[in-house]
Amino acid sequence: MFRSNIPRRRGQPLPNDVRKRNFFGLGEIISVITNPAETVRSLTESRRLLEEARQEIVENRERAQLRPAHTFSRLPGFFPRPTEVKAVERALEGEPAFTVLFGASSVGKTALLREVLSRPDYHVLHFDLRIAGFADLSSLYTSLSHQMEMYFEAISKSMKGYEEFEKEAWGFKHDRLNVERRITEGTSQVKVSDIAHLMELFQSALLKYWEFQPAGSDQPETSQAPSHKRDVDSSSEMTHVENGVPPQATQAPARRSWASRIFRRSRKVNPENDKGKAPERIVEKPKQNPKKHQSEPQPPPKRIPVIFFDEAHKLPALIRSTEAMKCLLDSMLVLTKQDRLCHVIHSTSDPFYQTWLRQLNIMQHCKIITIGDCSKAETRVFFQERILPRVPESLRPTLDFEELFDAFGGKLVHWQDYITDYVNANGKLEIQRSSHFSQAHALLNLHIIHSAQSPTLNGDSEKSANDNGPGSSQTTPVGSGFKIYSPLTHPHSPQVAQATDEAPGYMSDFSAMELLRVMSRLTQDNVHSLPYFVLCREMGVQTIDGMVKGRILDLRWTDPPTPEASLPNASSRDLGGHHHAAANSSGTAVEVADEGEEWMPAPEDPESPVDREAPVSEDFVGPRLVPITPIMRYAMREVVQEYQEIQSISEYASLADPEEY
C-alpha cells in the first residue's frame, strides 16, 4: 500500500534496505479521512470554478461571433446638399487637420457628416455626446480604449493581409486590463497619464498602419530604383512606368513621405522629352498584363481614420478635469498637424465652443466650417419632391411656397413638422398657430417679461458696468430674467456658477429694451445679419452673449458654403408706420434716400419702446449675428409689430422710465 513508485533522482544512492516502505503522502490521506467536510467544500469550490470557466468560454465564443457595433451609418432620406458635401470632402481630401463644424440646431450637421464618412474610404471613431458613454476620467479611458481596439480588430478582419494588426488591438486590451486591475486593487484611479499613454499607443499603432505594406502588394523587380516604383504605384492606381525604359529615366527625386502619398491627390506624371534621354511612356496597368493582375489581386486601399465628436461642446461639462481635456486635445493636434495620421472633426451647435478652444490654445490650429440652412432653390426642390407628395390633392392649392418660405426659410425640419400638422388639421392651420411659431413667439415674450420685472437699479453693480457700452451714462434696468438651459462651455467659470438655478442672485444678461432694439434692427428691410463686435461695443459683451445663450440669436464665425435664404420681402410683412432714422454709436447705421428725394430726419417718438434704427450695412468683416431660426425672425416681426402698434409701454411688461430710451 505504501510502496513508492517515485523514480529516484540520478546520482541518488540506493537505500540499504530496498524493501523499506515510503510513507510519502500519508498525511494528506489522513487529513482527507479525518476532515470530510473540508474535502466536500474543496470539491464544491472546484466544481464552481469549473462552471465559471465553462461559462466564460461560452461567452467569449459568443462575443467572438458578434459583429462589432458600429452605428455610424447613412441617415435614411438624406436630402442632398452638394455644396456642403463638397466642403467636407475637400477638408478630408487634404492633409489631416483638426476641423470644427459649427451650425445651429437641426441644420443637418450629423446627417451631412454621416453621408460623407459612411463611405468605405473612412473608418470613424464616433463619440456621440448626446448619449455620452463617459462622464469621468475612468469611463473616458474605457470608451477610448474600446473604440481604438475595435478599429484595429476591424482592420485585421476586413482587410486581407492586415491580420497582424490584431496584435495592435491586443495592446489596447491589455493596457485596459492593467488599469482595471489597478483600480480593483485600490492602489490608484485613472489619471491623466493613463489617457496620455493610451493616445501614445494609438499614435504608434497608426504610424505602423500607414507604413505597413501587405504581403500581396507589388514588390520592386529590380534594386536599381525601388523607391521610384513604390512612389509611382502609390500615387496612381492605374498607371506605372514601363520596364523597358533606361535607368536614367526611371530615377526619381527624393522619396515623398507616406502621409503625402496617402492624403494628397494623385499626381500626374508628365513625361519629359529632354535631349539624350529616352522619354517615359505611361501606359495603363490593366492593358499591359491583364493575366498578371488576375492572378495577383491588389491589396485593399487603406481606410482613413477619422475621430468624430458630435456635440463636442459637452466635453468640458462631462470631463471636469482641465488637465485631461488639455491632454486629449493636444494629442489630437499631434495626430493631425504634427504626425498627419488621422482627421479629427468636432461638431457643435454652441458658437462659444470656439472661445473655449481658444482659451486652451487649440483654436488657432483648427479649420472652421459653418453649416447653415438650405438656399431657396434647394428648399423649392425639397418642397416639390419631398413635401407635396405627402399632401392630399385637395389641400395642395392652399399651400403657397413664398409664404411658407418667408416663415420657415431653409429649415427643412420645420417644413416637415408644419406640413404634418397641416395635413392633420385638414388644411386649416395658419403659420401663426403652428408649433414652431408658437414656441418662438412664447420664448421672445418670456425673455421680455422676465427681463422687465423686478428691475435692479444698483448702479455700481458689475452687471450695470458690463451692459452699458462706452459713452453711455444711464443705467439699464435688468430683471430676474428667464432661465433657460445652456450648454456648459466652461463649468468652472464664475458666470456658469452664478447662472445655475441654485444661485439666488441670478439676473438676466440683457434688458427688455436691449432685446427689443436688436429685434427691431433684425426685422428691418434688407437686413439679414448684424455685426457681432459692433453690437458688443455698443451694448456690452455680456448682453449680446446672453441673447445667444438664450437661444434667440445665432453667432456665426464664418459664412456658410451655401448662401442662405434671400432677405425677407418688404411687402410680405409690413410692420406698419414709417421707419425712424437714427445713427448708432458704431457709425454703421445709415439710410440711403431714394434718388431725387430729399432726406429729412423724422422726429423720434419718446414713448416708443422699440428702437427704430436705419438698416445696417451687410458689408462688414467678422462674425455676425442672425436669428437662430427663420421662424424666430418671423416671430420677431410679430412681437415688434405689437410694440409699434401700441406706441407705448407693452401690456406684457412693466418698463421703468421708457423716456430714457
UniProtKB/TrEMBL annotation:
Signal peptide: none annotated. Residues 269-287 have a biased composition (Basic and acidic residues). Residues 466-478 have a biased composition (Polar residues). Residues 215-304, 455-496, 563-615 are annotated as: Disordered. Gene3D superfamilies: P-loop containing nucleotide triphosphate hydrolases. Residues 592-608 have a biased composition (Acidic residues). InterPro entries: Archaeal_ATPase_domain, P-loop_NTPase. This is AAA+ ATPase domain-containing protein.
